[in-house]
Every structure is written in structure tokens, then in C-alpha cells.
Amino acid sequence: xxxxxxxxxxxxxxxxxxxxxxxxxxxxxxxxxxxxxxxxxxxxxxxxxxxxxxxxxxxxxxxxxxxxxxxxxxxxxxxxxxxxxxxxxxxxxxxxxxxxxxxxxxxxxxxxxxxxxxxxxxxxxxxxxxxxxxxxxxxxxxxxxxxxxxxxxxxxxxxxxxxxxxxxxxxxxxxxxxxxxxxxxxx
Length: 187
Known about the structure:
The chain is of the alpha/beta class. It has helices spanning 45-56, 72-83, 100-112, 121-127, 134-142, 169-178, and strands at 11-17, 24-29, 32-37, 59-62, 119-120, 155-156. It contains 6 helices and 6 strands; from the N terminus they run βββαβααβααβα.
């Protein structure tokens, strides 16, 4: 469907947005922001959008830059975040791509780990009543459909290590530096 056609049934609006950490795919439904993906280069878009459309059973419309409808506010807030003027996203979220324990952990992360702070995998597991489920928390972070907005980059190893990150460790370092948790890289 090209960007001038209007979807007839349930629909998904998506766009690729430039950011300080590279191009991001953003997707939203009428319920709210449903997906954020890193490294959204042209060679990866079909592999990102196709499965999303299939999973949600929705028609997709690519929003032209500046013509976003469902994504207008997420685009604005992401720009403010990278400019350093936004510390908490205030967006409706469509949680359909997450369920069960993973959703519980991600919602707790979103509620309780503010900008400029970090939490250990084990501590987050304890917060959801599952002490000892640190590895499962790691799996939940890896399944996060809304990274950046639901800040899985703020989850680190309990021993002080940076831990893993779906967007890559350098991206995680950049985000933690932006939030003042790590020093800015020298180059």
C-alpha cells in the first residue's frame, strides 16, 4: 500500500526516523505505539514490516516524513529525548506484541526505572515477585517490542557489567551516556 492510500480495516502506520543511534523503525496502531526497531536501513525494512503486519493482521501505511498521524507524537518525543529535553515518554502503548511474564517485567521497568538510573536483572526480577529469575528478565528485555520508550537499555548486570542489548552494546553505551549514567565516549 503506498502512502497515499488509506487502510480500510485495522491499520498500522509505520515510518523510519533518523536518530543519534541510527535509523529507527516506528510503528503504531490506533491503540498506540506498538514497535520500535533499531538499524532500520532500507535493506532490512521488508523483514521488519512484513512480520509485524502479519502478526497484527493489519493493513500497513508508510507515513511520509512530516505527514505522520499515529506517529506524530512518538516522533516528536523521540527527537526531544535525543535532544536531552525529554526524560520520560508519555505515549499510549499497544502491548499486543508482549504477554505474560515478559509484559509484566517490561511494564515494571517502564514504571519504576527512571531516566538516568539503572537496575540489575536480578533486582528487576525481585520487583515482579520472581527473585532468581534474572535470566528470564534478560529474555524479557530481548523480547521488548518498544526499546527506548520502554527503557531496556537501563537494565544491567548485577555485578556492574553493562549486559546485553538488542540494538548492540555500542548503542546501549550511547543511550546510557545520553542519560548521564556513563561518561560520553571520547570519540
